[in-house]
Write a structure and sequence with these properties.
The protein is mainly α. Helices cover 71% and strands 1% of the residues. Helix 4 packs antiparallel against helix 15 and helix 19 runs antiparallel to helix 20.
Length: 475
């Protein structure tokens, strides 16, 4: 029998203890991820170990034999959706690092200073700039780290409220993670739902902007402390550190977007962005070692291209193992049983089907707190339920991405907030006017991460944006 999602031969596995045992690897992985996320140790490498242990635990319980069990894991790992996602990670990572090397973020910060902004207006503009940077580079973590280090010391003397300013930075990172065609969550949500990435990004813009507008308004209204330190040495020093030259790297970003929205493959579009970005670096006089540097003396290879690929190695391996675990769950018949039970709840209603997707994805995001891991974990469930009710791949991908991007970003024990608190603590050591914050304290100020799930719940309840798949989708 062929698996309609992968085109691979679909094998059934029998387990001692029944179908439920087929879910053991994924169940162990989820519990493992929750525990280590709560401990502040939730990263891809830790998650990989958890998935390996889970897969090992179920191996001796497989009646069908170890060979067939391993074959099923390999079949899951070699699905087209996984390979496409990994290739997209590497190309997106290289493109992101090329923009960083060119000083794109410095250009954005310089632009903010030149507009002579203070108070809440400064906070609102920081949200926009962080969102632009996040969309261009596809990384919430990179946006958070970069903007906290550069913007906090300047924004507070300019009258920005520290908590709202930090919330604006994280919100901008989440916006970029949700909308960027090169972000890991966009790649995962699109590929696992068998949708093209440009089409997904186009279709989700209305949801993203609907959450961004009220967030921006609130940042402007409430984001100023009212205390502006004129001619602050910190601000003047920061202004001297940044310049406009990096703004030229908006050109590769526009090239990628234009190429992708013209219908070109994402890898083709990213290649054009990488090549044009490298050309700009060389034209502007950056040394070749900025792009790639063969350090023969120390036996290492460095540079933007290497950093871009290396940053995605753990995520790629995690994706493969989770797909392998998902395949075990599918081959055992567990997913069919779950779908059958949820079908009784849904009772033929598309709205109920979307509510189930919303709740299950939301719970996974809150519990696992790692947006990529939670997205991969529930992706097959979302795909199967969505297909059963003819929900368009774009809609499925948008529900999956919006919830994993936003909820994982506002959970106090999640990676976004933990990273932010650590970065702010580093900044506070050098600037005594920057307050240290707790993980619980910052969560209510991440307004975009709060508004986006509300927007998506409204979309589910009202049917706003709901599309149905054609009889034969062209993915």
């Amino acid at each position: 029998m062929l698996d309609e999602n992968s085109g691979l031969e679909k094998q059934r596995l029998e387990f001692y203890g029944g179908t439920l045992v087929g879910a053991l690897p994924m169940a162990f992985f989820i519990v493992w991820a929750i525990v280590f996320s709560l401990m502040g140790l939730g990263n891809e490498s830790v998650f990989i170990i958890g998935m390996i242990i889970g897969l090992t635990l179920a191996l001796p319980l497989c009646k069908s034999g170890g060979d067939k069990y391993i074959d099923a894991i390999v079949a899951g790992m070699t699905q087209e959706i996984g390979i496409i996602a990994i290739l997209a990670y590497y190309y997106a990572g290289m493109f992101s690092q090329v923009l960083r090397a060119g000083g794109f973020v410095d250009g954005l910060i310089w632009l903010g200073f030149k507009m002579n902004l203070t108070g809440g207006i400064f906070t609102g503009v920081v949200f926009i700039l962080a969102a632009l940077f996040g969309t261009a580079t596809g990384t919430a973590y990179g946006t958070i780290t970069t903007f906290c280090l550069l913007v906090l010391p300047a924004g507070i003397p300019l009258g920005a409220d520290p908590l709202f300013l930090i919330g604006a930075i994280i919100s901008g990172g989440i916006f970029g993670d949700n909308l960027a065609p090169i972000s890991d969550t966009t790649i995962i949500s699109a590929t696992t739902q068998e949708a093209d990435i440009p089409g997904v990004v186009k279709s989700r813009f209305k949801y993203a902007i609907s959450a961004a507008i009220p967030a921006f308004i609130c940042f402007v209204i409430f984001g100023g402390s009212g205390e502006v330190v004129k001619n602050s040495e910190v601000v003047l020093e920061m202004q001297n550190q940044v310049g406009p030259s990096g703004l030229i790297f908006i050109i590769p970003f526009v090239i990628v977007l234009f190429s992708a929205f013209r219908g070109n493959n994402l890898l083709t579009s990213l290649t054009r962005g990488i090549v044009s970005g490298i050309a700009l670096l060389l034209i502007l006089g950056f040394p070749l070692s900025t792009i790639v540097n063969f350090d023969l003396q120390n036996g290492v290879i460095e540079g933007a291209l290497i950093d871009g690929i290396a940053g995605y190695f753990p995520l790629s391996i995690m994706l493969l193992f989770v797909l392998g675990g998902s395949q075990i769950m599918e081959a055992s018949g567990f997913m069919d049983a779950v779908k059958e039970n949820f079908t009784k709840i849904i009772k033929g209603s598309v709205k109920r089907a979307e509510l189930v997707i919303y709740v299950v994805t939301g719970l996974a995001s809150v519990l696992i707190t790692h947006n990529a891991a939670s997205g991969i974990t529930v992706s097959s469930f979302v795909r199967e339920i969505g297909k059963d009710y003819n929900i368009h791949p774009y809609r499925r991908a948008n529900l999956l991405d919006a919830l994993t991007s936003s909820l994982a970003g506002i959970i106090p024990w999640g990676g976004h907030i933990i990273l932010t608190v650590a970065t702010v603590a580093t900044v506070a050591k050098d600037y005594n006017f920057v307050p240290t914050i707790s993980t619980v304290e910052i969560a209510p100020y991440i307004l975009y991460g709060i508004f986006l799930p509300i927007v998506m719940l409204f979309a589910v309840l009202t049917g706003w944006g709901l599309e149905f798949a054609e009889p034969k989708d062209e993915i």
